[in-house]
Amino acid sequence: MALQQADKPASRTPKTTLRKKTAARRPGRPSGSVNKVEQRNRLLGAAMKLFARQGIAETTLSAIAREAGVTPAMVHYYFKSRDQLLDVLIDERIQPQRLAIGEAFKVDVDDPVKVITNLAEQLMHTATHHPWFPALWMREVISDNGILRERIHKRHGKPQYQAVIDVLARWQKQGRINPDIEPSLLFVSIFGLIVLPLVASKSWNNDPAKQKLTPEDIARHAVALLTRGVSPPN
């Protein structure tokens, strides 16, 4: 009896025809599934957080990568150096806030009290909606060894600063505000009355007299001191 011919195994298609080759990516280059705008914003946010916490000079690109949870190569894909990253932060995150604060002097320009009130409220809004702002400004702008102040002025000049001084000088000539006020110190004074209490409020949990104070209370207090001092109402 003839033996039946064994079945031949079905021919197999080469594996190379079943697998799609993955396109090679440069190290640090985001994959197609990553939203590049979102990734870039994430890096900027991490950088701003570290700059405010420990200072610009002490923050490296590697530290920013760790904070953002990415590789250093990823940071270098978007920003070639820390200086470039800092300039982007100034242009995209800091300068818009400076302009917004300066808008206070473009509304109700003939009413100093309203302008000062608007300025205090806008500064409070900036400080509460952008947690990096108070610490970063104190560390890198007001401080003598801060890196940010001169870099901002180099990129954007001081037009808002001079405009504020001009407005205050005009009010003094018109007899609208106290002639003893030093125009160049007004913003520093308001900043101190608004931002310093916000920074200090983190330690107020055990102070019954302060722990219930809100940002609005701090702004109201600042405006009262700036516009009426400690004199009783008329």
In words, what does this structure look like?
The chain has helices at 15-18, 36-54, 61-68, 72-78, 82-102, 112-129, 132-142, 148-156, 159-173, 186-200, 215-228. It starts with 14 loop residues before the first helix and ends in a 6-residue tail after the last helix. It folds into 2 domains: 33-80, Homeodomain-like (Arc Repressor Mutant, subunit A, Orthogonal Bundle); 87-228, Tetracycline Repressor, domain 2 (Orthogonal Bundle), CATH 1.10.357.10. Helix content is 60%, strand content 0%. The model is unreliable at 1-8 and 15-23 (pLDDT under 50). The relative contact order is 0.09. Helix 5 runs antiparallel to helix 6, helix 5 packs across helix 8 (148-156) and helix 6 packs parallel to helix 10. The chain is built from 11 helices and no strands. The chain has 234 residues and is an all-alpha fold.
Strand-helix topology:
Layout: H1 15-18, H2 36-54, H3 61-68, H4 72-78, H5 82-102, H6 112-129, H7 132-142, H8 148-156, H9 159-173, H10 186-200, H11 215-228
Helix pairs in contact: 2-3, 2-7, 3-4, 5-6, 5-8, 6-10, 6-11, 10-11
- Quickly give the structural class: mainly alpha
In the CATH hierarchy, the third-tier topology of the largest domain is known as Tetracycline Repressor, domain 2
Task: Compute the separation of the termini in Å.
Answer: 127 Å
What is the mean pLDDT?
A: 84
Give the tally of β-strands: 0
Residue stretches low in confidence (pLDDT < 50, at least 5 long) are 1-8, 15-23
| Net shape | globular
Question: What kind of sheet is the major sheet?
Answer: none
- CATH architecture term of the largest domain: Orthogonal Bundle
